[in-house]
Automatic annotation (TrEMBL):
Organism: Lysinibacillus boronitolerans JCM 21713 = 10a = NBRC 103108
Cross-referenced Pfam families: Ribosomal_L25p (PF01386), Ribosomal_TL5_C (PF14693)
InterPro entries: Rbsml_bL25/Gln-tRNA_synth_N (IPR020056), Ribosomal_bL25/Gln-tRNA_synth (IPR011035), Ribosomal_bL25_b-dom (IPR020057), Ribosomal_bL25_C (IPR037121), Ribosomal_bL25_long (IPR001021), Ribosomal_L25_dom (IPR029751), Ribosomal_uL5_bac-type (IPR020930)
Superkingdom, natural source: Bacteria
Protein name as annotated: Large ribosomal subunit protein bL25
The Large ribosomal subunit protein bL25 L25 domain, residue ranges: 5-91
Gene: rplY
Length: 198
């Protein structure tokens, strides 16, 4: 089910206009894509934040713009790292009947056997690229890591058949690996080697 949000068409212009919008509790945004010309808009920050908290960033938004409803997904969010505020949003208008490609967060489930034995969990990639109809877009892809031992890894090939959506990331795309802990003895040896004269 899509989330209905009211948006307002805005004038493009000076940076001061954008600053004024943000001070007034709105977020500058743009919508483009299926049957929509690129249109600068603004959206109430509190409404957008509430919707994200309730439905997640991957939900489908029904944007009400000048009496017309447009189905869209978030294509990109620009955030201010200092204030943890959203500076700008790109909305992509979509055709609900057609599949789209999207990056979906990886959610690790369980406690790895290897970590319990002192191993260190490494997660080199935080998202997977999937192809799915908008209404079926998951908020995350669950990956069970409970059986992973030290020295073992999980790639897309290991989970491809366990998910209901089509993953288009390559089979060797690394999801998680458990590495052996570095012992104090190894660290000391490494430092001594570094200090030895050449």
């Amino acid at each position: 089910m899509s989330t209905v949000l009211s948006v307002t068409k805005r004038e493009t212009g000076h940076r001061s206009t954008l600053t004024q919008l943000r001070k007034g509790g709105a977020i500058p945004a743009v919508i483009y894509g299926y049957k929509v010309d690129s249109t600068p808009i603004s959206i109430a920050a509190k409404d957008f934040k509430k919707s994200i908290q309730k439905n997640g960033q991957n939900s489908v938004f029904s944007l009400e713009l000048e009496g017309k409803k447009v189905n869209a997904v978030v294509s990109e969010i620009q955030q201010c790292s200092l204030k943890d505020e959203v500076n700008h949003i790109d909305f992509l208008a979509i055709n609900m009947a057609e599949e789209l490609e999207a990056d979906v967060p990886i959610k690790l489930l369980g406690q790895s056997v290897g970590v319990s034995e002192g191993g260190i969990l490494m997660q080199p990639n935080l998202e997977l690229k999937v192809k799915v109809k908008p209404a079926e877009l998951p908020e995350s892809i669950d990956v069970d890591i409970s059986s992973l031992k030290i020295g073992e890894s999980l790639t897309v090939a290991d989970i491809r058949d366990t998910t209901s959506v089509e993953i288009i990331s390559e089979d060797d795309y690394m999801l998680v690996t458990i590495v052996a802990p570095v012992s104090v003895e190894e660290e000391t040896t490494d430092s001594e080697e570094e200090q030895e004269p050449v």
